[in-house]
Specification:
Elements: H1 2-22, E1 44-47, E2 50-52, E3 55-60, E4 67-68, E5 71-82, E6 87-92, E7 105-107, E8 116-117, E9 126-131, E10 136-140, E11 149-154, E12 168-171, E13 174-178, E14 181-182, E15 188-191, E16 195-199, E17 204-210, E18 213-218, E19 222-225, E20 231-234, E21 237-239, E22 248-249, E23 253-256, E24 259-264, E25 267-269, E26 276-279, E27 282-287, E28 290-292, E29 301-305, E30 307-313, E31 316-319, E32 324-328, E33 347-359, E34 365-371, E35 375-388, E36 401-406, E37 411-421, E38 430-435, E39 457-467, E40 474-478, E41 486-496, E42 499-500, E43 506-509, E44 513-515
Length: 517
């Protein structure tokens, strides 16, 4: 009898696990609340009647009086859960977060999801949402980004790595501190739902001066170097939380010379240096990555040098610097160790597709400055910009979409297609800008580029681009070269605030362009 009971218990446990993996239980799959991790004071959340942990973080906010490491910030929340279809989400908010129920929206707006706020309740503190399918959603209670909630959802997992496999680093729910982790060939790093990998490096690389203060520049705790067939996946979080409060600047990763590298369905939060910067990378898939960062230099996903066949899809970035970007650096800002020479070179065959971005500083997508090598065959397709609030002034190299190569490398064969900007409060003058100056936003010139020719930018197409609610109503094309370095630029159905743009809306200095009929 005792053995029968044991067998029955084992079978029942296996059945429950199978149901959770396949999603057959119909209800949303929620994850444990990690002990010691900051909880949002602005949101109580349930999904299909089950409690969902609301993580607390920040966004850069020029209108806030609160500061971290001398940068203005305001509260932001996010949550993570799985479901198959039609999840009912209930939100409980403090009184005063919603000022007017009609202002509350769910982004992307194209999804047509209407938050149900009871107008008869004067506190407006309860909201219901019906989410039709797994995706990235943002509840924007005032429509302007104040106290927003990012809702990151996935389809239920159909399989997980074997935790007993010697090539698997399996992190269960809870907080796991890390100082130094090397991911070698054929390794899988799996973060279970509710797992937080907390970056706590002990090695300091130097001092970084920013925002009028000095920060300790910390060594990256996770290293991939000359590794093949590495996967990082799961439902967990890689976190740099608390680092800026300690006076430390860091990013989780140093990625050099990878091949067949996959990153899927995890979140990275509160990095204060470039989040994903790829050098010498080939055949990379980044699928369903979520990035939340609030400090300057927190660039999102960047093939940085010598990259080929990079596919970025279904990702979400809310950060405070360039988000989806391409560079082609020829050195580490004038320094190139001999051992790293092989990591520098051309960039080719890169796709960013079906992604979302909320950008509080710099640009949402494009080519950004350090271009010592060539870039070719790049596509940005089906991307929604939820908010663009950059505090940077009207620099001529910046826009909602920008290509500003410096360093002499050629940029060719790029497509921007089906791009929507939902809302902008940035100070930019140009919705699209191409500018091949050697200068940049914060220095008048970059001395190491002085003797180089200005970059050629050619065969660039902008198709079906819809900029809504923005003051950036011009296109800027600025050629600083001696001939026709910016050429074959095509615009096909580009609109701003409902108006289709034409040649008269272009501020042009020596570029060759055309508009489709």
């Amino acid at each position: 009898m005792k053995n029968s009971k044991s067998i029955f218990t084992t079978i029942a446990a296996a059945a429950i696990l199978a149901l959770s993996l396949c999603g057959c239980g119909k209800k949303a799959i929620v994850f444990p609340a990690p002990e010691g991790v900051a909880k949002s004071e602005h949101y109580g959340i349930t999904a299909d009647g089950q409690n969902v942990f609301a993580y607390a973080t920040y966004r850069m906010d020029r209108n806030s009086e609160d500061k971290i490491a001398n940068s203005r910030v305001s509260p932001l929340a996010f949550c993570i859960f799985d479901f198959e279809k039609n999840a009912k989400v209930e939100l409980k908010l403090p009184k005063g977060i919603i000022k007017n129920p009609s202002d509350a929206v769910v982004r992307p707006l194209a999804l047509g999801i209407k938050p149900a706020v009871d107008p008869s309740n004067p506190d407006f503190d309860k909201v219901s949402l019906l989410l039709p399918k797994p995706d990235n959603y943002t509840f924007d209670p005032r429509g302007d980004g104040t106290c927003a909630l990012h809702i990151f959802t996935n389809a239920p997992e159909t399989s997980r790595p074997d935790k007993n496999d010697p090539n698997v680093i399996y992190l269960g729910a809870g907080v796991h501190k890390i100082d130094d982790m090397k991911l070698e060939s054929n390794k899988t790093l799996y973060l279970e739902g509710g797992a937080v990998l907390l970056c706590s490096p002990k090695t300091r690389k130097g001092i970084y001066k920013v925002n009028g203060i000095e920060l300790n520049n910390m060594k990256e705790p996770i290293t991939l170097r000359d590794a093949e067939n590495v996967t990082i996946c799961g439902r967990g979080i890689i976190s740099c939380a608390g680092s800026l409060q300690r006076g430390e600047r860091m990013t989780p990763f140093r990625i050099r010379g990878v091949k067949n590298f996959t990153m899927r369905d995890i979140a990275i939060i509160e990095a204060s240096e470039w989040n994903i910067s790829l050098y010498g990378a080939k055949d990379v898939l980044i699928d369903g990555l979520r990035i939340l960062s609030y400090y300057v230099n927190s660039d999102g996903i960047c093939p940085t040098s010598n990259c080929e066949n990079i596919f970025v899809k279904n990702c979400f970035i809310h950060n405070a610097d360039d988000a989806y970007e391409i560079k082609a650096m020829d050195s580490y800002w004038g320094h190139k160790p001999k051992a790293d020479e092989k990591y520098f070179g051309d960039i080719r065959n890169v796709v960013f597709e079906n992604c979302q971005v909320w950008n509080d500083l710099a640009i949402a997508m494009g080519v950004t400055h350090e271009i010592g090598h060539n870039i070719e065959n790049v596509t940005f397709r089906n991307i929604t910009v939820l908010h663009h609030t950059s505090i940077a002034g009207p620099y001529p190299v910046r826009g909602h979409i920008a290509i500003f190569p410096a360093g002499g490398g050629k940029v060719s064969n790029m497509l921007f297609e089906n791009i929507t900007l939902e809302n902008s409060s940035s100070k930019y003058k140009h919705c699209i800008v191409i500018n091949n100056t050697h200068g940049d936003s914060w220095r008048k010139n970059t001395p190491r580029y002085d003797s180089r020719p200005h970059s050629v930018v050619e065969n660039i197409t902008f198709r079906n681009i819809d900029f809504k609610n923005t003051k950036a109503d011009k296109i800027g094309l600025f050629n600083h070269g001696k001939s026709d370095e910016i050429r074959s630029i095509k615009f096909d159905n580009v609109s701003v605030n409902g108006k289709k743009l034409g040649a008269k809306d272009v501020e042009n200095n020596g570029a060759k362009f055309e508009f489709a009929p």
